Amino acid sequence: MAANPTNPTTPATSTNPIGPTNVPDIALADGNRIPQIGLGVLRIDDEAVSPVVESALEAGYRHIDGAAGYNNEGGVGRALAEAGCLTGENRKRLWVTTKLRDSEQGYDSALKAFDRQLGLLQLDYVDMYMIHWPTPFDWRSGDTWRAFVRLREEGRVKTLGVCNFLPEHLEKLHAQTGEYPAVNQIELHPTFQQREVVAFCEEHGIAVEAYSPMARGADLNAGNGVIERIATAHQVSAAQVILRWHIENGTIIIPKSVHAERQRENLDLFSFALDPDEHAAIDALDGPTRAGHDPLTFTYA
Ligand SMILES: NC(=O)c1ccc[n+]([C@@H]2O[C@H](COP(=O)([O-])OP(=O)(O)OC[C@H]3O[C@@H](n4cnc5c(N)ncnc54)[C@H](OP(=O)(O)O)[C@@H]3O)[C@@H](O)[C@H]2O)c1
């Protein structure tokens, strides 16, 4: 009997490699729906990433967040092949994101890069293709976006997104192309909440996706034990408290873990809720310090 993806008692099987899930979808402005939790695969090498993706699929992840710059699209593709997720119903149940290298921005170069990336992933289409960094000192996002639109028209990309765009970059892209992206993936965690960027996105129908949702682990100890105290009160982990706070904010999250147990923990966010005081205590941890890079000056690859 085929497994039911919404029934939490049904395990992953060989015919249904994607385990049970109760993760909600977020509706995007372009009509597509993205699972609110995905697995990040940054800093996992090409060989190591395949078992990591396979264990995530078994745990019930339906969303993988990759990038050309992570140098592991081949390993992600091998995991999808091994799990039988390249075509058919299994493919339809999955959301696969990848991102264009900064060095390949531009109309022709983006089209060429996409062909290579799709080949590595062994897929016919990706659910989301993203501009990785705005590189405002070498702006090519307008031309790149025109290539992205062509890929969407060809049915090889479903949703177009960007990462690390500040409002000024979103406005410039809109002025040049007449479009806002459906998703902006930005660094966002309790100690760096980027409220102005989030407000601009909300105003313009752009879904916010939080990368480094736990500040790469640093926020687990944020606020002199505030997170830990809330975790103890709910008998959950500090990671679950932070990820639950994101979920309650309506943010898409892509926590990374190479450990199957942590992957399961990071999906298990729906059997408790923060009370308003607890949620507000995490809101109050906001600060000005990034864990990652500054989009005004950084280029990734
Ligand atoms: N668009 C961009 O420019 C951009 C930039 C950065 C990241 N990203 C994306 O966002 C994803 C996530 O961000 P991130 O990897 O920087 O940071 P993160 O998800 O905030 O944190 C990952 C770190 O936390 C640990 N961890 C995970 N789950 C845990 C748990 N339940 N308990 C304790 N520790 C836990 C992981 O260790 P273990 O792996 O050892 O479990 C890892 O060291 C990336 O993988 C990537 O897909 C995008």
TrEMBL record:
Family statement drawn from the similarity comment of this UniProt entry: Belongs to the aldo/keto reductase family.
Name the record gives this protein: 2,5-diketo-D-gluconic acid reductase
Keyword Cytoplasm carried by entry: no
Superkingdom of this protein's organism: Bacteria
Matching InterPro entries: AKR (IPR020471), Aldo/ket_reductase_CS (IPR018170), NAD(P)_OxRdtase_dom_sf (IPR036812), NADP_OxRdtase_dom (IPR023210)
Protein's UniProt keywords contain Nuclease: no
UniProt feature, compositional bias: Low complexity: 1-17
UniProtKB keywords: NADP, Oxidoreductase
Spans annotated as Disordered: 1-24
Coiled-coil annotated residue ranges, if any: none
Residues in NADP-dependent oxidoreductase domain copies: 42-286
